[in-house]
Amino acid sequence: MAMATGRSPIRVLVIGGGIGGLCLAQGLRRAGVDVQVYERDESADGRRQGYRLRISPEGEAALRACLPPGLTKLLTATANARDDSGLAAYDERLTAQWAPAFEDPRAGRDDKIDAVDRVTLRRILLAGLNEAVHFGKDFERLEQTSDGRVTAYFADGSEATGDVLVAADGTNSRVRAQVRPWDVPHDLGIRTIFSRIPRREAIAAGLPEALRDRFSYVIGTDGHHLGLMPMLFREPPSRAAARLWPSAGLEDSDDYYMSVFNVHQADLGLGDEEFFAMSGEELCELVIERTRAWHPDLREIFRFADPSTAFAVALRATRPVETWDTCPVVPLGDAVHAMPPSGGVGANTAARDAAALTGLLAAVDRGERVLADAVRDYQKAMVEYATEGVEMSMRIAEWSIKRARG
Ligand SMILES: Cc1cc2nc3c(=O)[nH]c(=O)nc-3n(C[C@H](O)[C@H](O)[C@H](O)COP(=O)(O)OP(=O)(O)OC[C@H]3O[C@@H](n4cnc5c(N)ncnc54)[C@H](O)[C@@H]3O)c2cc1C
Q1: Where do the FAD-binding domain residues begin and end (predicted)?
Q2: Are strands 34-38 and 133-134 parallel, antiparallel or unpaired?
Q3: Domain locations in the chain?
């Protein structure tokens, strides 16, 4: 293995300011490494990003490793207040089916972070990065320079050059499209409608006690599946931010359920063009229409879904997960290991990548490692744990297809 000698400060360019890219930026900043993030969205609130995120023990450890202590405290203060270690499954008549308990080494810990609000998380991940995050930068292409560096070109005509370029631009990665055009995540044929249901209204309307405080999953014999996941803030985000990190700009949100409605393309009876053109109102209507034979208490819940929060996605997965032979272009997150959200580990895996890469790039910056060696070690470990994440998520997604299609 080649040994590096003397300090050799590097500049890291991160394409994509999502969960993985920002987590990496926080970690590198903490380690004193020069990092610049280029995000396509015009601002932090640029698009629908989903709602509640489950955080695994590994994901929590990675977030804690990357964030400075003040932001970790803020994330803890605004995390989900309820114990989230189980799942209760029902049929569409609300008859209990089974209720597996998941082992969670954090059980009973007051400061555990087992689920967070995604908008709050992204704001926390942006806090303190200020001039290191460049919004409105739509990456178009890259070129390697003769001295081994890499230049990124953006749609607005600007460019940036660094020693490392991290592809953190998500499932549809344009960086990947350039350097590995054949490597496209598989479409699993499952279509999902996400929405946000205010908890207070749902309970006032008679949401059954059993569905209120835990992750509930309804498996319809009609081929439709519904997940309901509560997000109850430990502390209102604005109050926690005022106490812990005033400039984080957190906004309050009421407690809510994230609802996930899965249907196989074949059961949907609609082409993708038509499905993905549907408005939030139409998506909510579709869910109400498809569940009209369900127990009235379940149907009632959707009356309170906020149509402006409803959006549709196609579930996709990278199989197999592979190393990229493209150093100094380095992959991270969904760009290299897309997986269906069914396992609740995609963001956690991106955070793990960020924590692992932070340690190795900091060692390169200090002159203790050679970049190519560090990147090879990162990818070797990443492929292993990311493959586990993809396969676990696939088992859950495939189970759902099988049950849905009989
Ligand atoms: C509704 C939903 C629920 C989920 N729930 C969970 C969960 O509970 N737990 C979990 O672990 N995971 C969950 N996931 C998966 C998780 O969201 C992803 O795995 C995670 O966001 C991946 O992080 P990332 O940084 O790789 O990509 P992203 O977070 O998607 O970020 C990519 C970023 O790159 C930017 N970008 C894209 N193209 C360009 C370009 N050309 N130029 C510049 N910037 C660009 C995008 O705007 C975006 O900000 C869920 C996913 C969905 C859709």
Answers
A1: 11-179, 314-369
A2: parallel
A3: 11-405
Q: Does the structure show a pLDDT above 70 at 22?
A: yes
| Chain center to CA of 401 | 22
Helix (H) or strand (E) holding 352: helix 346-365
d(CA 305, CA 56) in angstroms, rounded, equals 27
Supply 82's token pair: 């309820």
Is residue 122 over pLDDT 80?
A: yes
Q: Is the CB of 170 under 6 A from ligand 1?
A: yes
| Pocket residue to mutate for ligand 1, from 19, 174, 392, most atoms within 8 A of Cβ | 19
CA 4 to centroid of ligand 1, rounded, Å? 34
DSSP state of 309: G
Instruction: Identify the CA nearest to 151 among candidates 183, 176, 175.
Output: 175
Structure tokens at 343: 């396992």
Counting atoms of ligand 1 from 1, which one is nearest the CA of 346? 19
Segment 223-250 shows an average pLDDT of 93
| Integer Cα distance of 319 and 99 in angstroms | 30
Does ligand 1 lie within 6 Å of residue 261's CB atom? no
Q: Closest ligand 1 atom, CA of 52?
A: 8
- Any atom of ligand 1 within 6 Å of the Cβ of 343: no
**Which of 62-71, 150-159, 246-255 has the least mean pLDDT?**
246-255
**Is-contact 393 190, C-beta < 8 A?**
no
Greatest Cα pair distance, the chain, in angstroms, is: 70
Residue 128 has pLDDT above 90, yes or no: yes
Q: How many angstroms does the Cα of residue 352 sit away from the middle of ligand 1?
A: 14
Residue range 11-405 forms a domain whose CATH class is alpha beta
- Which atom of ligand 1 lies at the shortest distance from residue 345's CA? 11
Decide which of 101 and 343 is more confident: 343
Would you say the CB of residue 169 lies under 6 angstroms from ligand 1? Answer: yes
Map tokens 């005022």 to a residue.
242
Whose CA is closest to atom 48 on ligand 1?
18
And the tokens for 270? 């609609």
Residues 6 or more apart whose Cβ sits within 8 Å of residue 370: 1, 2, 3, 4, 364
Length of the chain equals 406
Closest ligand 1 atom to 334 CA: 26
pLDDT for the residue numbered 213: 84
Distance between Cα 334 and ligand 1 center (Å): 7
